[in-house]
Write a structure and sequence with these properties.
The structure is a homotrimer of 245-residue chains. The first copy, chain A, is an alpha+beta fold and 245 residues long. Chain A contains 5 helices and 14 strands. A 7-stranded mixed beta sheet of chain A has the order 2-1-3-5-4-6-7. In chain A, strands 8-9-13-12 form a 4-stranded antiparallel beta sheet.
Chain lengths: 245, 245, 245
């Protein structure tokens, strides 16, 4: 299974080109799953925390094609990581680093191979897709990768107290893992205090709250409403944990 | 074939997680088709009329994963329905009820099974996906389902005189089936009278009209324009059938 | 491989119905790839230049389902083209014509077959999908197609000096092929002069420039910003090539 995690946009010209490349190279029958193409544009830091929350929902052996790549065509490296039995391919700009920092066991490589036709701006299609397809097939030319000691850019394992993603309902996910925040605590964002609820249907329609979302993050939501619009939330906004009342 | 019909958003983190679960459980080669992830958010009633208009375009034996679930984590039931040879899995909140009310022959079950890891807010991934995958494979553990007499929430078979969906062109579909509205009739919405035309290319560019759309509903459109923006239409707006001139 | 290129929208009710039809008819294992469902609405001319830039990224033998169809239900023809080993199916409204004009070798047919159930407004599902599936399987009923001398509507092979697509980052692609524009030249759009850069990471954050994009078109962009919003660009805006300083 190859899992795509990008800021390419689900309705744009990029994902289809990547899939054509994957389909031409990966073994017949390899499933390609679009996890997210709406990672906040250019934001490898937010993406790194989202990827860390999401990858555990996929099986061992899955190959993650993880590409948010504002530095494409510049000096940033190209990395392959094996972390606790899953594989990750993408730019070495921090995007893979939170998964790495939280894994029990990792192995690292740098991508040495360059295709004959390498565009300046779309390494997702030209470089990372062939590598991901090779990994999914269990075969890569032996000289495509060189072992490395780790990533060049590392954000570390710690939570970040910021909004990292707003979904289409307007729910705002933070970089705080809910296991680290007691239910008695309130969350403050944009000057608003938000108390915990177990689930949407336990608060009145239109009320704002925080809850442990389905991927283990603290999330700010409004029952049957749009929290981002109603509260004025944006990706990058700081949040803080405040004591119980 | 498993057909997905949700309000999860096509470019969000939810559909990919559902697909990963389906792929791990359904028989190899099961096709997964995204019918719509843009059902109006939380609107099981509008969704019920859309699903009724659309399901006939898919083959017998298709399994519909139909999830608009604002009551997730609360008291609403989880239903499986067989209606005229197709299968439907989703929350018992009315979403499946228009298909049921219009079918010739239905059978009903309640989902008794609960997974060990059941999130409070994402039963689509944790509960409905495994059930849909089991149905697609023709095998479900015998104790997962219990027969039931029908659904708890029923909207009935009748048309609704409201806008139920606005597509990305700005065309506004109503809950009126075109077979119930004569071509001589006009439609009124937001105070505007709209006459019938057979198809877009038969009215001048920029003109508004109603027509029988490709799934059998009365639809308000503008030739090469955006009817929703131009006329100020929203999901939920009332429409009425008025006499011929 | 069947490649979909439409203005149907990725999150709308149309693509899923097309895929269901393709899956029921095409040989098992045929890959279906969404190239783009966000071609500017109704704009066969812009779409024709985009398709010409993109199709070369797909293998020989690929079948392109290319449908932007504002004239559906009217007099426009339905065409099948083989161009340099790839296949194209769609309305004869100019959409296929730039590919044709730039190909070395083409063969043309008109679609004579009409299905029993042909909606007035969705020939993508009812007419073009069965034809595309038949082509992908290498078999079509012999009386479905009749040879023709060429297309009815032709835009020609020349570049167009207009914006033909704006992606979700806000990058604006033109109908100018970058091989026809020297790096020393500047591009003018909406009164703004833009100089060339090789790639995003070579200009300061927030700066506007033009570059050769990954499909060979002149594209106007802002490093880590939204060029369309920042410069006020829209599809259809004229661009011009101005001399080097």
């Amino acid at each position: 299974m190859i899992v795509l995690f990008t800021d390419f946009g689900a309705d744009d010209i990029y994902v289809g080109q990547v899939k054509a490349r994957l389909l031409q190279t990966a073994p017949a029958g390899t499933a390609i799953v679009d996890l997210l193409h709406g990672v906040p544009d250019f934001d490898a830091h937010a993406g790194a925390h989202l990827l860390s929350a999401l990858h555990g929902r996929f099986p061992k052996g899955a190959v993650f094609f993880a590409v948010i790549d504002p530095g494409v065509g510049g000096e940033r490296g190209a990395a392959v990581v094996e972390a606790d039995g899953q594989w990750f391919v993408g730019p070495d700009n921090g995007l893979l680093s939170v998964v790495v920092a939280r894994a029990k066991r990792t192995r690292h490589w740098r991508v040495r191979w360059r295709p004959d036709a390498l565009s300046a701006s779309f390494h997702g299609r030209d470089l990372f897709a062939p590598v991901a397809a090779g990994l999914a097939g269990g075969v890569l030319e032996t000289d495509w990768l060189v072992p490395s000691d780790g990533l060049d850019v590392n954000y570390g394992a710690e939570d970040i107290a910021r909004i990292v993603y707003i979904d289409h309902y307007g729910n705002a996910m933070t970089g705080l893992r809910s296991g680290n925040v007691p239910h008695q605590a309130a969350i403050e964002a944009v000057g608003r205090r938000l108390d915990w609820a177990r689930v949407f249907s336990e608060v009145p329609t239109g009320s704002a709250f925080w809850y442990e979302n389905s991927v283990g993050l603290v999330e700010i939501a409004v029952n049957q409403g749009n929290a981002a619009t109603q509260l004025g939330l944006s990706v990058g906004d700081a949040v803080s944990i405040i004591g119980s009342p």
